[in-house]
Amino acid sequence: MKKILSLLLVMALTMTMFTACGSEEKSEESGKKAQLKMATNAEFPPYEYREGQDIVGIDVEMAQAVADKLDMELVVEDMEFDSIVPAVVSGKQDIGVAGMTVTEDRLKSVDFTDSYAQAVQVIIVKEDSKIKSVDDLFVEGAGIKAGVQLGTTGDIFVTDDFKANKSGTVEEYNKGADAVQALVSGKIDCVVIDNEPAKKFVEANEGLKILDTEYVTEEYAIAVSKDNAELKDKINTALKELKEDGTLQKIVDKYIKAE
Ligand code: ARG
What we know:
Elements: H1 2-31, E1 35-40, E2 43-44, E3 48-51, E4 54-56, H2 58-69, E5 73-78, H3 84-90, E6 95-96, H4 104-107, E7 111-112, E8 117-126, E9 144-149, H5 153-165, E10 168-173, H6 176-184, E11 190-194, H7 195-204, E12 208-210, E13 216-220, E14 223-224, H8 229-244, H9 247-255
Helix pairs in contact: 2-8, 2-9
């Protein structure tokens, strides 16, 4: 009887060990989710910026919510803004999420998901600037010096319009914040940048304001390789759900306070 009991005990123990092993393996397996590699440029508050070592912002949280829906692990890679599209084209990165505007030109290289935000290019000037409206930038011979972030739509539009109107020159900076510093120190006359980052930069610096008139309106979307229609479709489905159930709005409200 004693023998049988101890045999049973051994069997029970062995079984527990096996089960324990089994479940450990399983949790290890589910830890190995497929990666969703996101290229961004964390110089663009409130969409993406650094908080200590962390990259935070609307785009990061939205992409995390999308990754969760796809049961994938989000991996964020910070790079120069104008490296993002090439990184997606080459397949090094799966998606570009960077407050990126859908443009005809970019559509030649990458696909875009459905749009997730509207944006406006605005003009930041010093409070006492002689520039009163967008039109003042494009008066022939005005000699305006405009700062932009390299490769952004602000850069592209102002460069074109200055050329067409012979009214100014563009200074390209790697970071929007550097353009704003150049404005503060009087090296340039204005900065052309997206409206939400503009608000953050004006908040963070004394003596600046945003012109009331809007320059160009745009749509933000996620860039995906043209060879990855399946991923694009899955992201669109996830985005639709996140819009419908209010998650996306909740993320936006966390970073953009209603005025
Ligand atoms: N919306 C503009 C564009 O697509 C500027 C985006 C800049 N984004 C960034 N993360 N720095 O060109």
